[in-house]
Amino acid sequence: MPANLVVGAQWGDEGKAKVIDYLSKDTDIIVRYQGGANAGHTVVVGGKKYIFHLVPSGIIYDNTTCVIGNGVVLDPEYFLKECADLEAHGFKVKEKVLISDSCHILLPYHRLIDEAREAGSSPERKIGTTKKGIGMCYADKMLRNGVRAGDLLDKENLKRKLTHILEVKNQELVKYYDLEPVNITEMYDFLLDFADKMGKNIVNTVYYLDSELQKGKRVLLEGAQGTGLDIDFGTYPYVTSSNPTTGGALAGSGVSFRYLKDVIGITKAYATRVGEGPFPSEILGEAGDILRKLGGEYGSTTGRPRRCGWFDVQMIKHAVTVNGINSLVLTKIDVLSHYDSIPVVVGYEYKGKKLHFFPSQGLEDVKPLFAEYKGWKDDISGINSFSKLPTLCQSYIKSLQDLVNTKIGIVSTGPDREHTIIMD
Hints:
Shape: globular
Largest sheet: 10 strands, mixed
Helix content: 25-40%
Oligomer: single chain
Distance between the termini: 21 Å
Binding site for IMP: 13-16, 38-41, 130, 144, 225, 240, 304
Binding site for GTP: 12-18, 40-42, 306, 332-334, 412-414
Binding site for Mg(2+): 13, 40
Number of helices: 11
Number of strands: 19
GO cellular component, one term: cytoplasm
Binding site for substrate: 300-306
Strand content: 15-25%
């Protein structure tokens, strides 16, 4: 059986969790392949809201096994709290979650350094980090100075490794950031406690996934953030510290490209981003506040207000190219029912010349080129049939599909599972 991938086509917060939840009923294994507790995925079932950070959102289905892949940086404190919260709602998390033995462990000093670096940055150099230590943990991974989940299964080896790491890390904490050194005994005990609670869940997930795919199991790969925040293909340096795109899905899970069938890109019917960085279609002032309130655009992890803008054709075409997206899901179209006229960014102009691509540099200097589409002014919340949408709404969807030259397979008209239109 093939593996399918759900990827964000904008700057994250596109509604991936709802789509993953919708697809999970036909899936055996859900794999989270990158990011950390800086991501927040919201699912609404029967009017009840669940927010996920590290645990794949497919956990709420009885039939699914959830995997935290090697590309994730796992914060033990956040993870155990999330497990406890979900288990309080009746979900058997620890019985259904596997953790890659190659998954890197995010430690308390990563958060401390992240906070110190952001606080010490000049206004023009602030990234807008969530200060959860994600970038610092990925940096240690690349410096080959990190702790992996598999290290927790060998107590003697863990102590040797931790001693070596903290000799270096404590110098950095004290001399560079003027912070207190880490107590090795406390850190060691903290990790052993996590190993006692979750050690049986730590396995070689590359072998597990390959074996299950060969048996015919259905796998869905789930990322955090979106293409615009990819460390290589996003608006660098205002990006996350990993690859949310298709390449990151393969590297962060160990699933071979030979298994990959459908790449499903998620995009809002408008655009949002959190934190700093260029945003060509951004709506400033009161108009931006109105769209933010209409869409409830506040971060599910941080509560930060999201910046809001109009749908950007060039950005979605970039996401289609980078990820190999063969189908799009359009979310939150019901939010646009408020408008008489809906602008869409259909291109960019840079230094007097029209650009035919999403630029790697200079995005902050492009002039967005707009087209206007008539609004439908009818409440479409919860409609689950394309034919029942107002004609002008149908036209808007078809126009976006033509502009990005990629089929829109699913349209979401609200947060609940049932508020979904299958186009095919």
